[in-house]
Write a structure and sequence with these properties.
By secondary structure, the chain is an alpha+beta fold. The chain has a domain of about 120 residues: Alpha-ketoglutarate-dependent dioxygenase AlkB-like (Jelly Rolls, Sandwich), CATH 2.60.120. About 15% of the residues lie in helices and about 30% in strands. The chain has three helices and 15 strands. The strands form four sheets. A seven-stranded antiparallel sheet has the order 1-2-13-10-15-8-5, covered by helices on one side. Strands 9-14-11-12 form a four-stranded antiparallel sheet, with no helix packed on it. A hairpin with a 2-residue loop joins strand 6 and strand 7. The longest helix has 13 residues. The radius of gyration is 16 Å and the shape is globular. The structure holds succinic acid and fe (ii) ion (FE2).
């Protein structure tokens, strides 16, 4: 499969500092699915409620801190508010994948402290936003897609900047940093399709380095 699609899905610079690595994760990466199952057994997927209502993507995290949302806002927390326990440690398989992808995109020495795991069912989406709660603007964001495809919009530092629209497939990685670190991005409503390993679901792992001074209990 990788070879079949390689010629038509070359690695692509989306904007300065942002690179799309199609099929970077080998499709036989069964380990990642096992890791997601292990993490979510200890820190279950949940739909955070924001001021705008419940988020359509279900989320969990691993690493020294996890991303959380509630009606008062967004932040990184050392503990899972649902279990009051620390988030599961980031498994080496995840850390190594993220470090390798960052280096491939030109960001050597990436040291992620958090991996947010998003699970999208049919119809779930993520509105346009910037990742800006991390306090480490020099470190990129590494995003890994698994399962059914998603239409991903990637723009610039202004919300109104023109967007590139790409379809992220199982095993695709996008890395954004440098001049693209605060690019606006979002995911359109997931279409109901089937993937061998995930059924109707899409998973997205985003790795971030976070300033420890910003972690809350
Ligand atoms: C995110 O922006 O946190 C997730 C992006 C994605 O699901 O591809
Ligand atoms: Fe994001």
């Amino acid at each position: 499969m990788d070879d079949l699609f390689a010629p038509v899905r070359p690695r692509t610079v989306l904007a300065e500092g942002a690179i799309w690595l199609p099929g970077f994760v080998p499709s036989e990466a069964q380990t990642l699915h096992q890791v997601i199952a292990d993490v979510s057994a200890r820190a279950p997927f949940r739909h955070f409620r924001t001021r705008m209502g419940p988020m359509s993507a279900a989320m969990t995290s691993c690493g020294a801190c996890g991303w959380i949302a509630d009606p008062s806002g967004y932040r990184y927390s050392r503990t899972d508010p649902q279990t009051s326990q620390p988030w599961p440690a980031m498994p080496d398989a995840l850390r190594h994948l993220a470090v390798r992808a960052a280096a491939e995109a030109g960001y050597e020495g990436f040291d992620p402290s958090s991996c947010l795991i998003n699970r999208y069912g049919p119809g779930a989406k993520m509105g346009l936003h910037q990742d800006r709660d991390e306090g480490r603007p020099e470190a990129p964001v590494v995003s890994v897609s698994l399962g059914v495809p998603a239409r991903f919009s990637f723009g610039g530092s202004l919300r109104s900047d023109p967007k590139r629209i790409i379809d992220l497939l199982d095993g695709d990685v996008v890395v954004w940093g440098g001049p693209s670190r605060f690019a606006w991005h979002g995911v359109s409503s997931i279409r109901e399709t089937f993937h061998q390993q995930t059924g109707a679901m899409r998973y997205n792992l985003t790795f971030r380095a976070i300033n420890a001074a910003l972690f809350r209990p």
